[in-house]
Each structure stands twice: as C-alpha cells, then as structure tokens.
Amino acid sequence: MTMSRRSLVAANWKMNGTLHGIRKLTADLRAGINDGGRAEVAICAPFPYLAEMQHALNGSAIALGAQNVSEHESGAYTGEVSAAMLLDYNCAFAIVGHSERRALYGETDAVVTRKFVRAVTSGLTPILCVGESLAERESGQTQDVVARQLDAVIAGAGIGAFAKAVLAYEPVWAIGTGRTASPEQAQEVHAFIRLRLARHDEGVADRLRVLYGGSVKAANAGALFGMADIDGGLVGGASLDGAEFISICRAVR
Ligand code: 13P
C-alpha cells in the first residue's frame, strides 16, 4: 500500500469573522499560498461569504468549501443551503458530519450519510468527519465509535462513493482544546480507518485522503503530516491566523 496521495490542508473557519476580516485574511492567504505546492489547500468559509470568496480566490491555488450542506435537493427547508447553491459559488468541498453538527444540531449517522450522498451525487467533495469523545476514548471505545460512524456511510453511500470523498479524523477532545492527538495516536486511528475501508475496496482505501483535525498548529503540523496515513489537516482556530495557516500548509512534505 504505497499509493501516493496529494495532501490536502483545509481551513474550517467555523462561525468566525466579519466581512472586513475575511477580506484581509483571504488576501493574505492568497499572497502566501501561490505555488499550488505540495499540498492542495481549501478554505471552508461561512455561507454568507462564499460569493465574496469566490471572487477573491478566482485564479488562485486555493479551493473553496462550505461547512455544511443540506441532505435535500431543494424545496421547503427553511434555513438550509443546497449542494447546487454551493456549486453556484464554485465550492469544491463541503464538510459533512463535523462533530459540532453531530453534538449541537443532532446530526445522526443517518443524516450524515444522506448529506454525504447528496454531496457526492451533486459533484461536491464531502469532507466526512469522524471521531470519538474524551469519554469514549477513555473507555476504550475509539475504534468502535469511528467504525460505527464510517460503516453507516459505507452502507448508505457504497464504497465507490469514497473515491470522490475526503475523510477527516477529528477526536472531539482535541478540537479547540489545544490538546492535540500525538502523531502516533492519530496515525493509529488513521490506519484503522484505512483498513476498515480496505475490507470493501483496497484501491479506494489506498487512494482516500484522511486528514487529521484537532488543535493543529504550525508547531505540530510537521510531525502529524509526517505519519504514513495522515494526508493533511482540517484546521480550525489556527486557520484564522494567516501566517500560522500558511506555515501549516508549508509543513506538508
Ligand atoms: P481546532 O483546530 O480549532 O481544534 O478545530 C478543529 C476542527 O474542528 C476543524 O474542523
């Protein structure tokens, strides 16, 4: 299993920023990430800024993404945003099943699966997030939880859909806490994820990019990205600082 995968570093800005602030940050990132380099880079921005960002990133090496997408195609779903709307603004990616969506907005494995399928069939690349809570890790359930989250989507979407997807392992206890999984802890779960997918299709498992998310910063990115099954990162807090995020992108070897 020595397939080479191009790393991806994706920013998840979450519900942060103002129009003024994101203009400056986007300009800084555009200036600092101009070579298309070793890693593919994407920014998952808040919905209202997508139009602005589409123009600001036009012709740059940075792709645009959203943080969520409706499971429905269109219709009476007040407050929701469809895949077609995201494609109108040149979004390439949509985060699906982020732990904050699961924990705070009641997104079940079934909902996450439908969003994943909607993204793939619409031509968006879902960044599917999985990961265990602190209590689950401490009670030895990490693999069970990740397997459950993954198996639901494999069963509902089919393994072939993963050829058009990205995965992110985001241990909930490491998100926004400053407590990063060690490279070895993360690698262990990434390898588990790849093996789980390989039971269905080795080629798909081999080619799938599995990102790590959870307190990634410039100081730890190199060690994390150096692990065999870690193909980049999904970066929250540190992606709001232009210089820091650029350093993280450059940590890809
Ligand atoms: P932090 O990088 O702030 O820990 O957030 C990680 C995350 O949730 C990215 O989706």
Derived structural class: alpha/beta
Residues in β-strands, percent = 15-25%
Assign a percent range to the helix content.
40-55%
Gross morphology is globular
Which distinct ligands sit in these coordinates? 1,3-dihydroxyacetonephosphate
Q: Which strands sit side by side, in order, in the main sheet?
A: 1-2-3-4-5-6-7-8
Q: Which whole number gives the mean pLDDT? A: 96
Uncertain residue segments: none
Task: Write the H/E string, N to C.
Answer: EHEHEHEHHEHHEHHEHEH
Radius of gyration: 17 Å
Largest sheet: 8 strands, parallel, barrel
Number of helices: 11
What is the distance, rounded to the nearest whole angstrom, between the alpha carbons of the first and last residues?
19 Å
| Strand element count | 8
